[in-house]
Amino acid sequence: MTPEKVSLIFTKIVFKPLRTNLFHIVLSATFLTLATAKTYAQDVKTNKFELPPKQIPDSNKVNAPEEVKLPLTTQQDPDKKPVLTDIIKRKAKDYERMNVKTKIGTLYNEAELYYQDVELKAGIIQINYEKNEIYAGRIKDSTGALTQRPVFKQGSNVIEPDSIRFNTETKKALIWNSRTKQMDFNIISEIAKKENDSVYFLKNSKFTTSENIDDPEYFILATKAKFVPKKKVVLGFSNLWIANVPTPIAIPFAFFPMTDKGQSGVIIPSFTDTNRQGYSLQNGGYYFALSDNYDLTFLGDYYTNGSYAMRFESQYAKRYRFGGNINIRFENQISGERGLPGYGKAREYNIQWSHRQDSKSNPNAKFTASVNLGSSTYFTNSLNQQNVSARLNNSLSSTISYSRTFNTLPLVNIAIAATHTQNTSTKAISMTLPTFTGSVDRVYPFAPKDGIKKGVIKNINLQYNIIAENRFNTVDSLFFKPEMFKNAMNGVKHQIPLSTNFKFAKFFSVPISVNYTEVWYIKTTKKEFDDQLNRVVDKDQNGFDAFRTYSFNTGVGTTVYGTFNFGEKAKIKSLRHVIKPSIGYVYTPSFDRYFDYYYTDPSKTVRKQYTRFASGIYGGPSASYSNVLSFALNNTLEAKVKDRDTTKTELKKIILLNSLNFQTSYDISADSLKWSPVRFSGGTAILKEKMNINFGGALDPYTINKAGRTINEFNINNGGSLFRLTNAFLTVGYTIDSKGGEKTTGSSDKQSQRNGGRDDDLFGRSTDLSDRRQSQFDDDKTEDNDTPAAFYHTKLPWDLNLAYSLSYSNNNRQNDIVGNSLMVSGNIDLAPKWKVGVSTGYDFVQKGITFTQLRFERDLLSWRMDFSWIPIGDNTSWGFFIGVKSGLLSDLKWEKRKTADRVIR
Predict the structure, then answer these.
(1) CA distance 453 to 30
(2) Which of 357, 749, 753, 790 has the fewest CB atoms within 10 Å of its CB?
(3) Domains of the chain by start residue, with CATH
């Protein structure tokens, strides 16, 4: 089943008034309040039935059987149809009495009665089998307070009144001070009349989504109402009350369709005053309830300066099979006035598709989709999106793939995919359509079917891998235009690795592999000098062509363990150092047979070497051979300490250094600069693994000349140190909260992640302008008041997220800090219903404050109020919202905002 959007539960089936002023807000609120009620109201007679607890003499007390079938009629008429056609089941805690004279049976204290589909529980129940009526009411306790309110249930409808009178013949009922819940609505009616199983009439009824029925913080009071279950609600005069005070917000009548299933309907737009596009009608359209498995929503915006926007949203799901959603957005934006300076016109679009497949539906085949593509300036200039995190991100990516595994021997895997990457800064787009990959699992031709693969021969194995791509490199303005397909790059690459490994001297592992690669192209490039143009030109050569390469790899590696014990009395019992050194060797021969020559001048005296495969998607072969030795050293460091919990006997292991890696290489065949820079990287986690530290850099053994170029002379021979630090980086992340555990970020900002933004709030929280009811804060930041505070724990829920980044560059001995910034985001509950959050940072290089957002929110029980403010920068904006949380009354709200200025490019 497809989960229906909360924001559309009501707006699909009713008209939404314009949010232009207070009157329209009230009008919208009253209309939307009663959309899902399941009771009715009308005027009733004033002959109110009262149920005083009568004291019946003990002489009338009877011990009735567990099940009593009351008389079917008051007269002995065999031709008359019986009124009570089923057995009445009943019980009571204190007593059950039958007054033969008045023909009234009484059940007292925790009384229960069951008749057909009717269930009735109350303090006192009286059965008048002469009038065919059942009465129920409350009783007084020892303090004189009325208790045990009746609970009347018929089918799925539950009512909790002060008292009730029900006729078993006509199925009619009178209910005083009834309480019932229909979907998100709590309905309190002074008098309710049940006409039959499908019609209810109510008088002076309160409709509210407040959980406090006795004292709701707000309600809509309707003088008259008629309710037909699963069909409609008709209201008379109604107005809004807040804190038991009537407001001038009222409407004379209202009509609402009522259904418990999705229903197609018109979505009325809201009125908004924008900064640049004038007045607008936003988020209007139509909802199509196509089936239980999928739906479709069409929304549109129109602005008085001629701008417009359209959005198509659809959700679909099939239980235990798959689910997903699709969003297609298009905006035609106009700024300024035609014929005047500053006039501009642009078209923005964005397509998002997310598809997930249940892993149990088909274990051998899988289809997934994660699409986020569109114009590079959509999230910057969109009129209906306020997603700062997506604005600050400069990349979009998409992947659609289908993979399948064939359970053969050996296993065969294939996959077909379409990928897309887009840089929103440079507007460059790279797209593969499609990409085919296939592989055949490892085959051990010399190993027995059963037994251990031991030795060089038995460990010989081979694989087969294939990849075929059709790639397009273009820019935003030419995306999916004919120019995009003219310069398509395609090719097929086959790879067959043949490898084995063995142990040497018990402690050394030696891997050996030979890699064979074959590349197919259907288009190559020929270079030649054009006498007429007087320059070298490239000419495409269509037709099948291929080249083949191979290489040899081997190496040796081992693992060294070192342990230092401090003794039994020391807090740190021992340190363990794990070292993994390795040496590798790669030999690649020359493939100059795939190279040709072209002349660079008209006299044809100077020529250069080139390969016709160089412009291919996988490049071309190399004309020079190489003998490269590579060296790597990996380190980890951990400690064992005594646990603070004295009941634990085992030592606690702490990781002091997750990794510290060094790697370099030596090219034997190179004429100069044989040694490559020594690159190092490492990372650790401290403060109970709440602070992550990562660092890295490069150490160059060679010096540079005055022009800043690396020369074939060691730095130490030039009066310097052994190595020259050319670049380095350091990143620190620190995340804590009041609970002392790791913070779960992004739980309430999933749309921001889909748009390509961050999964935390370092760049602030995004805002859905079409539905402001969602909280700006995570919903799980509640604090257990019974838990004692410890260390940095407090009774006020809070969280803190720090990110520090430092970059150093010294390639040309400039000795510069090119990046040095600190970003902070935090949220705290100042009071049980007040939340405050901030996201900000500081750039120490540019000497300025980075993106800053302030967030405030007040929980008003059934209502929510928030304020979001970006005070500085290019995205300055603010927004205020107060409204009902429930989706049934999503238009009972008031909001005001100033969005960031859009620049039409």
Answers:
(1) 77
(2) 790
(3) 36-257 (2.60.450.10)
